[in-house]
Amino acid sequence: MHNLQSYLFLSVILFSFGLYGVMTRRNGVAILMGIELILNSVNLNLVAFNRFGGLSDLLPGHVFALFVIIMAASEAAVALAIIINLYKSFHTVNVDEAHEMKG
């Protein structure tokens, strides 16, 4: 992979799989994995634009990618806590069955 287009193509594929996972799955863990794929496609774009674009002097893409990784880790921790609470209350991780906030 030596050009920007190949990185962008791979990023589009990752984003599409992630979006498909978020839109079609009802399992809370599968939805979380779809969101992680979307965030990884963003990271790939940031690093690719940093490598092939002219952003390295002013705003390095690696710094933004690191910020996205930190945000993804925090999001995963909060989402897993919500999923564990959902399982504790409803005995399932299906998000369709959790239609009320009160257990």
Describe the protein's architecture and organization:
The longest helix is centred in the last third of the chain and has 30 residues. 74% of the residues lie in helices and 0% in strands. The chain has 103 residues and is mostly helical. Helix 1 packs antiparallel against helix 2 and helix 2 runs antiparallel to helix 3. The chain is built from 3 helices and no strands.
Uncertain spans: none
| Backbone shape | elongated
Give the radius of gyration. 17 Å
Largest sheet: none
| Nearest-integer average pLDDT | 87
Which class best fits the helix and strand makeup? mainly alpha
Helix/strand order: HHH
Q: Span between N and C termini?
A: 50 Å
Number of strands: 0
Helical run tally: 3
What is the share of helical residues? over 70%
Please indicate the percent range of residues in DSSP E strands (runs of 2 or more).
Answer: under 5%
Keywords:
single chain; 103 residues; mainly alpha; 3 helices; 74% helix
